[in-house]
UniProtKB/TrEMBL annotation:
GO terms for cellular component: extracellular space. It comes from Ramphastos sulfuratus. GO terms for molecular function: macrophage colony-stimulating factor receptor binding. Gene3D superfamilies: Interleukin-34. This is IL34 protein. InterPro entries: IL-34, IL-34_sf.
Length: 172
């Protein structure tokens, strides 16, 4: 029964498509540039765990390792929502980027409701291991500096890879 449920989830759910479309709108280049670069000091970085940086090349490697699209979307959600939290941690409430990151966090919270149906047993072990690492206290020592804009750039690129075709997004 679990296999049938996972196979049924290969196509992105309508709720996922709508929320990721809204995220795509929020992550437009001009907004990322303004809120994640211009409103931060030159060269500013956020300390993140190595696992919190998800690039298109990571997705390609995992796909070649036969990780399902469902598991990849689950992984993207966990890493991207964690990245938004990392950025929010460094912002005072009066910062010009506060409201923007709040709106991103709300969209990820709503997307989290869509993913609440997933059980970690439904996705490949390699993905559950990374998700566990993201939320474990021991991984805090494995940090690297990353620019806030780079985190959201990767979030958008990977989101387009994972949702563009199943959600039938046009190019642009």
């Amino acid at each position: 029964l679990g296999v049938v449920a996972v196979l049924g989830l290969e196509a992105a759910a309508p709720g996922e498509c709508e929320l990721t479309r809204l995220l795509q709108d929020k992550l437009q280049y001009e907004m990322r540039l303004q809120y994640m670069k211009h409103y931060f000091p030159i060269g500013y970085t956020v300390q993140v765990q190595y696992e919190e940086v998800l690039r298109p090349s990571n997705i390609t490697r995992l796909r070649n390792g036969t990780v399902s699209e469902v598991a990849l979307r689950y992984l993207w959600f966990h890493i991207s929502s964690q990245a938004v939290l990392r950025i929010r941690e460094v912002l005072p409430e009066k910062h010009p980027s506060w409201r923007y990151t709040q709106e991103l966090a709300w969209l990820f919270d709503a997307l989290g409701e869509e993913y609440s149906q997933y059980r970690q047993t439904d996705v490949e072990e390699v993905v559950t291991d990374v998700v566990k690492l993201l939320h474990s206290a021991g991984a805090e020592s494995r940090r690297k500096p990353v620019r806030p804009k780079a985190l959201l750039d990767n979030c958008l690129k990977v989101m387009r890879m994972l949702y563009g075709a199943p959600c039938e997004w046009g190019l642009g």
